[in-house]
Amino acid sequence: MPQASLTPAPAAVPRHIAIIMDGNGRWARQRSRPRTFGHAEGVEALRRTVEAAGDLGVGYLTVFGFSTENWRRPIEEVNALFDLLRLYVARDLDRLAREGVRVRVIGDRENLQSDILEIISRAETRTRGNDKLNLTIAFNYGGQDEIARAARRAAEDVKAGKIAPAEINPESFGRYLDTAELPPPDILVRTSGELRLSNFMLWQAAYTELVFVDKLWPDFDKAALEEAIEMYRKRERRYGGTDSGS
Ligand code: IPE
Ligand code: IPE
Ligand code: MG
């Protein structure tokens, strides 16, 4: 009698898609325009992708908007990226809220300007009751920073006697991460042909299927998302077990 497989074929639609939106600068350079022009166009690609994810029935979409290392960029570019977050929330929050999107922001909140903190809190509070699509924006986010902050909070709980050191394991530790409310990503897409994680979701991507596409982020659209999902569907997820035929 065939045994139930421990490694089922991937679901038709991944539950959680994470995206490293990369290539805005190169897209702008190809057009002899400033990098910030590429970032603005990247927001259009984000709009298309959020809509496509909703249409396709994806439950969770997590996008990398600004890394803890992106502070190394010229201050004008950093400011432009923060302005785009302001603009995105100002222009899209009403529609997102109406369409059933729940917005979350992950990353380090320390040292963010107070108006940015207010914008984040407004977006999260306003959409708290939604559950059609969970849109998480990683902003001032770094995987190592997230793990270190989580470790710090776990250590504080140990010190306060709330948990014992022996109670710290992958499951309990996961609850200290920024992503405590999210399932791990099934698929992580990086655009622009770069083959690295650049500090994105280091903990959560343990068994995520990685999909690298050459398209630059401002060119990303529903068809590109569908292609990435198609690649994912051809994968066999083993989670450390054997293949499903043995
Ligand atoms: C991704 O595009 C957007 C952010 C990092 C915020 P880049 O700005 O990294 O574009 P490239 O990689 O220089 O082309
Ligand atoms: C990762 O892209 C960060 C975001 C997409 C927000 P980068 O362009 O900053 O990564 P590196 O520098 O090429 O590794
Ligand atoms: Mg880049």
Short note summarizing the structure:
The chain is 41% helix and 15% strand. The chain is an alpha/beta fold. Helix 4 links the parallel strand 3 and strand 4.
- Spatial arrangement of strands, main beta sheet: 3-4-2-1-5-6
Give the C-level CATH assignment. Alpha Beta
Q: How many strand units?
A: 6
Instruction: Give the percentage of residues in beta strands.
Output: 5-15%
Helix fraction bin: 40-55%
CATH superfamily: Decaprenyl diphosphate synthase-like
Rounded radius of gyration (Å)? 19 Å
User: How many domains make up the 3D coordinates?
Assistant: 1
**Discrete helix count:** 7
Q: What overall geometry do the principal axes of the alpha carbons give?
A: globular
Keywords:
246 residues, alpha/beta, 6-stranded parallel sheet, 41% helix, 15% strand, binds 3-methylbut-3-enyl trihydrogen diphosphate, binds magnesium ion
